[in-house]
Amino acid sequence: xxxxxxxxEAGVNHNGNISLAKKLIDAAANAGADYVKFQxxxxxxxxxxxxxxxxxxxxxxxxxxxxxxxxLKKLELNVEAHYELxxxxxxxxxxxxxxxxxxxxxxxxxxxxxxxxxxxxxxxxNLPYLRKIGSLNKPIILSTGxxxxxxxxxxxxxxxxxxxxxxxxxxxxxxxxxxxPMRDVNLLAMNTxxxxxxxxxxxxxxxxxxxVPIAAVAMGAEVIEKHFTLDKTMDGPDHKASLEPHExxxxxxxxxxxxxxxxxxxKEPSQSEVKxxxxxxxxxxxxxxxxxxxxxxxxxxxxxxxxxxxxxxxxDSVIGSVAQKDYEEDDLL
Length: 333
Fold this sequence. Notes:
The chain is an alpha/beta fold. It is built from 13 helices and ten strands.
């Protein structure tokens, strides 16, 4: 299988601080992720000033009065910050990625020559947005939290009609509850999406822990996206449902191990286990002293280790045949 693309989702966990953003890049690079992803938006283009925060955002920011617009305004990354973070990613040999949430942000990312465009779950029903992304004819990763199969199909069709190719679209199964309860993960839906639409598939995870993305890779996910932070106790909307750096590294290591373990798919003895055949398998042996000329019977032969003699699969052809020499107990036939 192809190497799974691992996106370490920094998102807005930089809390509007460039120094913190660079530390997140360090953590993602140290963990071995392929991409570190941020979010590019203008609060004024993303949320009206009356838009309320989601329940989890209220809980995680400890602020029920602040509006969604006020929260987002503090989390914006300006143009200069993008240049600085891209340059820093290059110095750490990790790829920069960001989700653009509005036309202005999409244009910025395009002008920055970002080669991959990520569509967040909340935009899957945003027709003008989808057309804009589709018209760029760039590789696309589409998250599908809160969506049903009809909405996914509609979004894919819009992207294709706008100029994208199906082979360049990867669809991520996703649940947008933060954190996602295990009972709501529904990981089997990932392969339902693949079978229905013939697309590359992956999984964007919001559960606590690392076992679900690891399972997704075992099931064929080609992309894994996971939120991470430097400290889960920090104030901010996404910290509590994020991995800390050591957990991110554990996830990446586990995914790479699973990729290796999945192998080539042919069932055959591996090079490492061939030497154990003679030890673990059995042979037909004499169960008692047998004289030359005697018939082999179920009473005078049996099956024991080691496996370097006559295979027990020959049992039926041995029974009733004549011994060609003398045998002592446990002698190989």
